[in-house]
């Protein structure tokens, strides 16, 4: 089952096992069962601390990872290879007694959770967001005996995924009910379970010299550059890493030939933590006001003070804002073709958007689905010609230009898209089962209404030093009126804003 280089790497990890573990396998006579048995037996042959038992679990085929003499609560209903191989390796190590690499505060919060929590996560092995969710819930299962978690490969358990109407991954169910769709960190899970930080945790914080709002590439860069000046620096992040966490392949970050968004986000966080920066993760900014100092109010009611502030709240996927979009999100309306595409194998889908991201999505989906319909509002596609040429060579793609999406139809799942021909005014319906929205970004600046100058797109207007219309208030990244939105540009603007803030401090 395992290729030579992966097996060599796994051998090194298995040397770190601390105690004996048991892999309990529930297998039938199907091909996936045979592959699971091959996998667990191959792993067991590589370490004397691993044994295999055949048993009957809730799902067949599946296997669980256990301490000797007990059921630990981690189950893989599928073959955890591809992006999920790391989830398997970490489960083996952590169940054996090796401590998970999370802050002690996270461990304490996890152990304090009371009540029974049975989590199930539907994944696809091509999903780059799924492993973080699987690994977070596995850690909670290791730390708390009242928590269990099952990873369910939707491709292997197609009937169950269909019955639960899973149309996007990761899809997390708690005690049988849908609980969360999309990427979620262990800190976010704890907060959602009522174990997150409260306003009281922020009452004793002294004022900052620079307070950065946003934890993406721009925010991380700004915080590092500020901290390197030896001034008191804090960073408030709703989700450290920002939209980079949802980016699959990064091949234009100079000096790094190729990487993935989650890896870059982790590297950013580790770099930030090398400095004396007060990182306040999972905190959403609500209001900003300038008095003697800037006062930043958080959603939890806490108020932070700072001499200067750098806004780097980034941007998010733009919605079509038509009936059915919000109601059918994760029920056929999706935003990540890499993650959710495999769930639509053999089905008819649509892509809304004719820019590079939309056409790349259509090309990707054409290799999986039965048919792809592209809907573009403008008379011509905006994508690069090389992408258009590739798209036009595909036999199962229809491109509709100069059309306005009016509604996404369906109740329990997407059944179609209604659009209007902008030239004739005629209304049409396309029957399909999935819609992928790819129409660009919108800046996360609504909470700053009336605070500073923004353009008609909502982007913050800044000068060459990153300064806004309010003295002492700076901005950087995808939330500003930059000509281009790129990771490397965001990092540069973060550094510029930090240097601008420092210059402001020494002059005022």
TrEMBL record:
Disulfide bridge map: 336-339
Cofactors, names only: FAD
Any one Gene Ontology cellular component term annotated for this protein: protein-containing complex
Cofactor descriptive note: Binds 1 FAD per subunit.
UniProt KW Disulfide bond keyword: yes
Reaction(s) this enzyme catalyzes, per UniProt: a ubiquinone + NADH + 5 H(+)(in) = a ubiquinol + NAD(+) + 4 H(+)(out)
GO molecular function per UniProt: flavin adenine dinucleotide binding; NAD binding; NADH dehydrogenase (ubiquinone) activity; NADH-dependent peroxiredoxin activity; oxidoreductase activity, acting on a sulfur group of donors, NAD(P) as acceptor
The enzyme's E.C. designation: 7.1.1.2
Thioredoxin-like fold domain residues: 123-192
Residues holding FAD: 209-224, 468-478
PROSITE patterns xref list: GLUTAREDOXIN_2 (PS51354), PYRIDINE_REDOX_2 (PS00573)
Regions that span the bilayer: none
Domain (FAD/NAD(P)-binding) ranges: 208-492
InterPro entries: AhpF_NTD_C, AhpF_NTD_N, Alkyl_hydroperoxide_Rdtase_suF, FAD/NAD-bd_sf, FAD/NAD-binding_dom, Ferredoxin-NADP_redctase_2, Pyr_nucl-diS_OxRdtase_2_AS, Thioredoxin-like_fold
Keywords on record: Disulfide bond, FAD, Flavoprotein, NAD, Oxidoreductase, Redox-active center, Ubiquinone
GO biological process: response to reactive oxygen species
Domain of life (superkingdom): Bacteria
Assembly behavior: Homodimer.
Protein family (similarity comment): Belongs to the class-II pyridine nucleotide-disulfide oxidoreductase family.
Role of this protein: Transfer of electrons from NADH to the respiratory chain. The immediate electron acceptor for the enzyme is believed to be ubiquinone.
Protein name (database record): NADH dehydrogenase
The organism of origin for this protein: Saliterribacillus persicus
Lineage summary: Bacteria, Bacillati, Bacillota, Bacilli, Bacillales
